[in-house]
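sorry to bug you again but im stuck and you know this stuff better than me. what follows is a protein written twice so to speak, once as letters and once as structure tokens for the fold. id like you to explain what the token line says about the fold, in plain words if possible. anything you notice is useful, everything is just below.
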Amino acid sequence: MRRYTAPFIVIAIVVVSLVSTVHLAGQPVLDQPPVAALAAVGDLNFAGGLGERIIARGPDYPWAGTAEVLAGTDLRLGNLETPLSLKGQVYVEKEWTLHADPRTVESLVRGGFNVVTMANNHAMDFGPLAMQETISLLDAKGVGHCGAGANLAVARAPVIITANGIKFAFLGYSLTYPTEFYAGKSRYGTAPGYEEYLRADIPAAKAQADIVVVSFHWSAELLNIPKDYQRHLGRLCIDLGAGLVVGHHPHVLQGFEVYHHGLIAYSLGNFAFGSYSQQSRDSAILTVRFERSGPKTAWIYPVNVNNYEVAFQTRLRKGPDADRVLADLRHYSAPFGTEIMADGDRGVIDVGR
């Protein structure tokens, strides 16, 4: 007969007592569903003034004003709007071409970003060499990336990340010009958001994960109202199995829509962006609580991204400033029947009803 020492018996009694206490409370520990929180933000552009401050003052610089919100989440997603490379040459002549010092990749690490989408109209500004270095840096630092790669198949492939027992698949697509940035069978580039690709990719990703998150670079700059094609594709993604759709490119906020127990954030605007613009002053951090069955609750944290005021250090808006942004978002979201409730300086959306 196996003999147990006294310490083991004491431990066993304590464990049984704790489990019994939980049962008496009416909810066994094993019945609690796993929960994971995701923070989604808009455009990340480490060129220009922001990149200079990161190099001079350290990689934590962009997040000092928002760290308290970001730190409360398990996953963090953003749109990497610039190559992290000084290699290559201008791929397609256009008004704005961006690239950032590769050392700024440390800011993504310090900000806790698990995954970035590279499907946008700047990822190929300096061609395949710059994209290749960016991808190598992200891989070396353990930052997942989607929406771009060495060929079309790679660009369309999901990134799979597990958090608190919930498996997430991230897909990224661009619907912006120039189309020369779109990947080919054997050509570096971004994943175009064609409907035929969505119909193939989202169910395939859903077969590998509990939650599918789809990111789009779409719409038009400084537009607060989603275009008809955004509404069509956003809803299609939910119908195909996505739980969350996140948009960017306008540099300003657009509305939120709860659709068939999924959530569409049509544009989150800028977040950490290395340029000055009085027109891009408001943005938001979107945090979403997920269970395996889908999104349940979303919180909207208004932030100030006016670099004339915050000097490339995004700040949470408080009091009347936060109320103003939330009022704007209620107006933008009204056509979708979305209710954004007040909770102090943040808004709340009940998704899983």
